[in-house]
C-alpha cells in the first residue's frame, strides 16, 4: 500500500492514511499494531492517555521495519501541561515507545480553564522538545480557532491540529482556521466511532460503487485533503480500511456526504471550549 504523503509546514511529510489506537486495550496493542504494520499501515496515532504506547513501541521494534519507515504520533496528556511536567512526560513517551524521536508530538487538549489555561507555555515545552530532537514535528489537538490564535505570539505554527470530524460533524470552521495558517487538519473519530456506517446516504453510495460504508467515508476524508486514521482491532477491517486508494467519489457523492453535517448536534466528543 503506497499511501499519499502530505507535506507539513515544517517540511516533514506524513502519510495521509494511518491507524488509530484509542481504546485498544494495552495488552492487545502490540498484536493489533503488529497486524496493522503487516497490512501496510505506516502511520500509528497513539497518546499517553491511551496507555498503550509501550505496545506500539514493541510492535514497531518487532516489525523489522526501519524506524524511519513508520510515522508515530503521540500526545502530551492533560495532566502534564506545566512545562516541567510536559518535558518529563515526553521523556516517558520516548521510553514507552522505545524510540529516540517522535515523528509528531501533540498537545492532546487545550484545557482552557486548567493550569490558568496556559497551554501556550505547554506549547513552548513542545517547541523545546522539537529543538532538542525529541520530536520531528509538533502540533495540537482539539484546538479551536481562538486557541490557535493564542499560539501566534510564540512564532511557531502547529504542523497539524487533530480534531473531531466525520460526516455528521464536518467541523469546517476549525478546518478553515487550520488551512488559513498552513496547519494540516487530522481528523479523529473519522467513522463517527462506527455510528455513521449505516446512514442511508453512505450505504447508497457504497452500494453503487461496490465498496463498503467505511471505505466511502475514508475516501470522503482523503478527498477533503485531511489526514485520517480509522481504528479497528479486526484484521479484515484493517485491510478494508486501507483498500481505499484505487477509487474516487464523484463531486456529487462528496456533496451528498457534506449534506449529512448536523453541526454541533453531530458532535460525539466533548466541546474543546468546555472540556477540562
Ligand atoms: P473511528 O471513527 O475510527 O471508529 C472506530 C470504530 O468503528 C471501531 O471501534 C469499530 O467499531 C468501527 N469500525 C472501524 N472500521 C470498521 C469497518 N471497516 N467496518 C465496520 N466498522 C468499523 O473512531 P476512533 O477510534 O474514535 O477514532 C480514530 C482515532 O482517532 C483513534 O483511534 C485515535 O487515534 C484518534 N482520536 C483522537 C482523539 C483526540 O482527542 N485527539 C479523540 C478520539 C480519537
What does this structure look like?
The N and C termini lie far apart (39 Å). The strands form 2 sheets. The protein has an 8-stranded parallel beta sheet. The protein has a two-stranded antiparallel sheet with strand order 1-2. It contains 10 helices and 10 strands. The chain has a domain at 13-190: Alpha-Beta Barrel (TIM Barrel). The chain has helices at residues 26-39, 53-62, 83-97, 119-131, 145-151, 172-180, 200-209, 213-224, 235-242, 251-258; strands spanning 5-7, 13-15, 19-20, 43-45, 71-76, 102-107, 135-141, 160-164, 184-188, 227-228. α3 (83-97) packs across α4 (119-131). The radius of gyration is 18 Å and the shape is globular. 38% of the residues lie in helices and 15% in strands. With 276 residues, it is α/β, with parallel strands linked by helices. Bound molecules: nicotinamide-adenine-dinucleotide. Nicotinamide-adenine-dinucleotide is lined by residues 20-22, 45, 108, 141-142, 162, 188-194, 197, 214, 229-232, 237, 240-241, 269. Nicotinamide-adenine-dinucleotide binds next to α9.
CATH class of the domain at 13-190: Alpha Beta
- Beta-strand content bin: 15-25%
Backbone CA Rg: 18 Å
Give a list of the ligands: nicotinamide-adenine-dinucleotide
- The rough form would be described as globular
Unreliable stretches: none
Would you give the CATH topology of the domain at 13-190? TIM Barrel
- The name of the CATH architecture of the domain at 13-190 is Alpha-Beta Barrel
The percentage helix is: 25-40%
The run of helices and strands is: EEEHEHEHEHEHEHEHHEHH
End-to-end Cα distance, whole Å, is 39 Å
Strand count: 10
How many helices?
A: 10
Structural class: alpha/beta
For CATH, the homologous superfamily of the domain at 13-190 is named as NADP-dependent oxidoreductase domain
Amino acid at each position: 500500500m503506497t499511501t499519499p504523503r502530505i507535506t507539513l509546514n515544517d517540511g516533514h511529510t506524513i502519510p495521509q492514511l494511518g491507524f488509530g489506537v484509542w481504546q485498544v486495550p494495552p495488552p492487545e496493542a502490540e498484536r493489533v499494531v503488529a497486524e496493522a504494520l503487516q497490512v501496510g499501515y505506516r502511520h500509528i496515532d497513539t497518546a499517553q492517555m491511551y496507555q498503550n504506547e509501550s505496545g506500539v513501541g514493541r510492535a514497531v521494534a518487532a516489525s523489522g521495519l526501519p524506524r524511519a519507515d513508520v510515522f508515530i504520533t503521540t500526545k502530551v496528556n492533560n495532566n502534564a501541561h506545566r512545562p516541567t511536567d510536559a518535558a518529563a512526560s515526553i521523556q516517558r513517551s520516548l521510553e514507552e515507545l522505545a524510540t529516540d524521536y517522535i515523528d509528531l508530538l501533540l498537545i492532546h487538549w487545550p484545557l482552557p480553564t486548567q493550569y490558568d489555561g496556559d497551554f501556550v507555555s505547554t506549547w513552548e515545552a513542545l517547541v523545546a522538545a522539537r529543538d532538542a530532537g525529541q520530536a520531528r514535528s509538533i502540533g495540537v489537538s482539539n484546538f479551536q480557532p481562538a486557541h490557535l490564535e493564542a499560539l501566534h505570539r510564540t512564532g511557531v505554527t502547529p504542523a497539524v491540529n487533530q480534531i473531531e470530524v466525520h460526516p455528521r460533524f464536518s467541523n469546517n470552521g476549525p478546518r478553515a482556521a487550520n488551512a488559513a495558517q498552513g496547519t494540516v487538519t487530522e481528523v479523529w473519530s473519522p467513522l463517527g466511532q462506527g455510528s455513521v456506517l449505516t446512514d442511508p446516504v453512505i450505504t447508497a453510495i457504497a452500494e453503487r460503487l461496490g465498496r463498503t460504508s467505511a471505505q466511502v467515508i475514508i475516501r470522503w476524508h482523503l478527498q477533503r485533503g485531511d489526514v485520517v486514521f480509522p481504528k479497528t482491532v479486526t484484521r479484515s477491517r484493517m485491510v478494508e480500511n486501507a483498500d481505499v486508494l484505487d477509487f474516487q467519489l464523484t463531486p456529487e457523492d462528496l456533496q451528498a456526504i457534506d449534506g449529512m453535517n448536523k453541526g454541533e448536534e453531530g458532535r460525539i466528543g466533548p466541546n474543546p471550549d468546555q472540556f477540562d
